[in-house]
Amino acid sequence: MTARLSLDKDKVKFVLLEGIHASAVEALHHDGYGQVVSHGKALTDADLVEAIADAHFVGIRSRTQLTAEVLAQAPKLVGIGCFCIGTNQVDLLAAARQGVPVFNAPFSNTRSVAELVLGEIIMLMRGIPEKNAILHRGGWVKSAANSYEVRGKTLGIVGYGHIGTQIGVLAEQLGMSVLFYDIETKLALGNARPTISLEELLASADVVSLHVPETPATQNMIGVDQLARMKPGATLINASRGTVVDIDALVAALESGHLHGAAIDVFPEEPKGNDATFVSPLIHFENVLLTPHIGGSTSEAQASIGREVAAKLIRYSNNGSTASAVNFPEVSLPEHTGKCRLLHIHRNVPGVLARINERFSRVGINIAAQFLQTTAEVGYVVIDVDATASQIALDELNAIDGTIRCRLLY
Ligand SMILES: NC(=O)C1=CN([C@@H]2O[C@H](COP(=O)(O)OP(=O)(O)OC[C@H]3O[C@@H](n4cnc5c(N)ncnc54)[C@H](O)[C@@H]3O)[C@@H](O)[C@H]2O)C=CC1
Ligand SMILES: O=C(O)C(=O)COP(=O)(O)O
Question: Where in the numbering of this chain does the ACT domain appear (predicted)?
Fold first, then answer.
């Protein structure tokens, strides 16, 4: 474990992957952070390890896998920004144990996903994907067969969170009835109604739209049995995570004609960049709308995410605030004008705070302010002291058993 002194902003290195929006770079430069390296796509294996080996902050989107092994090879890492909603691509526990908070943008792209899904519901119910394909081949089939209004139909939303609720509200404006299933008790907006089980929702909905995070419980949540429970002629939409739907089971349900159609934005295996090839058994179905994980990819969402996550990283770097970190004790801190601030991250074992205070009192350091927050694994203490005492205080903190990382802010 190494003592980390506060660095000049010029020496703090940010590595941004996956084409993170220029608004993030602008925000970092505007705050005085000069070293920002941007990559246009996701990196893997040795390329990823090399790119982040000396980074203090790393910014990623949904594709970059920050595993425990990769993180262990980034010894200078201070913070991670997921410039998206999902954080399943990061080993959150390993990051916390390494003293690294992870931030994301929980709201900035939700409207974009909701709008895409709403458009897909209308397109699929009208059979537009097949009709579009026929005309592109020079054909002409003018028919009302298998073409329906959405008005009066039932939308079933699985995962009634930020995205699911917005879709429900918008769908009601189109005259749809909304059912939802969530593992948590949720406030029903508009006339939406909860179902007591996933099975009940699947059996009642004309369109099922998935908006759950990637967790062990949502892995292949929609498989053979669940698809069989859906109404004949129903439609499935997945803009959540590729692991939520068993693709082979979906293929079988489409081949048999049990489903009217589907819209799939996320896949179990996704290409790493725009020059890679997309492979999926779903490419053979004209009644399936396929999109390249662009649910949140609008100019508005990306610009807003860039600003939001950059601001969280800047705040953590400048004053130690971890408010809204997804894996870390959350501390929202005031400015530390006129004082030096020490950030002490430790394993959450009994007695650390007592040992800190005992050591400080033994060497006569006056604590101007102190903040503590813990999770089951990690403790985070922030202490403001006079500048004259800062180096002794840092040495004392580093000597404490259980210290993961200690940083000094001027
Ligand atoms: N396609 C794309 O570009 C995008 C995809 N996403 C994905 O959408 C997901 C949902 O986003 P938000 O609505 O913002 O998240 P959220 O956290 O606000 O909502 C998720 C909801 O799912 C519920 N849930 C969790 N596990 C469940 C289970 N096993 N069964 C039923 N409900 C369960 C939660 O209680 C919560 O209400 C994200 O986790 C992300 O993976 C998010 C943004 C863009
Ligand atoms: O916000 C999310 O969770 C998304 O899935 C969007 O991911 P992206 O930033 O487009 O790689």
Answer: 341-410
